[in-house]
Structure prediction request, 538 residues.
Amino acid sequence: MTLAQKIEEKIFKVLMIIATYFILVVLAIIIYSIFKKGIKSLSWEILTQIPKGGYYYGKGGGILNAILGSLCLAFGATLLAFLIGLPVALYINVFLIRWKKVAAFIRFLLDLIWGIPSIVYGAFGFTMMIYLGLQTSLLAGIITVTLFILPIMIRSMDEILRTVPYGLMEASYSLGSNKSETAFKIFTRQTISGIITAILLSFGRAIGDAASVLFTAGYTDHLPNSLLEPVATLPLSIFFQLSSPVPAVQDRAYASALVLTLIILIVSLFSRGLGKRYHKTKINF
Amino acid sequence: MTDNKKIQISDLNVFAGKFQILKNINIELPENKITVILGPSGCGKTTLLKCMNRLTDLYPELRVTGDIRISGNNILAAKEDIYKLRQHMGLLSQRPYPLPMTIYNNIAYGLKLRGVKKRREIHKLVVHYLQQANLWEEVKHRLREPASRLSIGQQQRLCLARGLAVNPGIILADEPTSALDPISSQYIEQKFLELKNEYTIVLVTHVLRQARRIADYVVFMYLGEVIEQGDVHEVFENPKMEKTKLYLGGTFN
Ligand SMILES: Nc1ncnc2c1ncn2[C@@H]1O[C@H](COP(=O)(O)OP(=O)(O)OP(=O)(O)O)[C@@H](O)[C@H]1O
Ligand SMILES: [Mg+2]
Prediction:
């Protein structure tokens, strides 16, 4: 290695280290501030009660409506997006293997859609609701959020399915499997941990987004009890609490943000564990 | 020679864009014999094997023309039934690709595709094929472990068992011993000699000594063409073509 190469390598190494630590520090600051501000307002009451009258002006109650609403909405949308997304991702990788240009075009489209801001989905969902004569409801929210997370779901599963080696595909076909057997029995098994990561990513996006549910899921102080009724969601709940002029309510907003963060944390730990369990049968190449 | 011809290939051409990988291949491979395909690296041996069970379908850049008849069926013309036709050909690749599931299910998977339904029957056959591949003793206590935990040599034997389990008439083996230790290789060779009573075996190898030990019939290829084919003794002891002589003499490989 020449001196120039050595210097170049040093510079890049330092840059990479700086970038990595920069991100870590920013993340730590965000989480720390949420924790610091949120933990003192976090109470049993806030987790287990719905807002009482005047909650947003400092009266008692909690955000159970938003916690449950967000969970219903995010689980519903993630499930729906998974049921639609997995077949699409498998289709691109197994059935379109001879049509690489079509596959590339679909990927390109999905990447484009991925970039559309969620407020546009919200507006689109709202227009559709008016067109169909639907109210703001859990169902409308689920459908809108499903559309919003579908590109992420499909493309992240797609990227992992692409890693399945040709040799494994050949092994599957040479045993007499057809395309759907190869897709659902071989591809999914080989990539299960990546598929779980894709689901998790989509769930995180689904539960964290405010703009797509603003016009579609609506907001209510009641617990979710029907697909056709509006539901509260954590991001909107945070927004309303932060907008309150009362400092104590603003602090509760941080407690709500902490709850949202914890939900995502728990779901990711859980899915990690699940992924690990199924990772064993993956063939490493 | 009066052998039955299990595989008849005529006027087979394979193109990748403008490049022609296989040029006008005309060969007939005898039933219940071991045919060895020899030739320097890049001459198209793997591609020829992949044509036989139409794995070339997976590569859109390849264009295949000609005729491949297996027991009379034209493989290249097959449409929907290609999935079932592939079951007549077990594939053993250069490096083993076990299925991403347990050792047991690696065998059971093919059995189920073949239509075996009863659990007891499946279990009996799993044991049988693992024994066939000389793997039973090593894995009988860990049938429910993922196949990925096996060593490469064990994985290759698992792939052999898995291939045999779909009850093929033909075994296509692409340098199946190149990643194996001498003992495992010797075992696979030995197994092929036993299996040829019931199977037609097509073996690609770079190891001339291995070819000489087990081949009945030899096809020598060079740059996408078949230069010479014939009985193993004829080709090894009395090669007709200059290129074959040079190759067998070790001038190039
Ligand atoms: N999908 C493909 N697209 C383009 N070219 C290909 C493709 N597959 C194979 N080839 C080319 O065809 C030629 C023959 O390849 P093949 O793998 O059949 O050789 P081989 O005889 O098996 O070699 P080896 O002994 O090294 O395994 C090579 O030049 C290779 O680059
Ligand atoms: Mg090869």
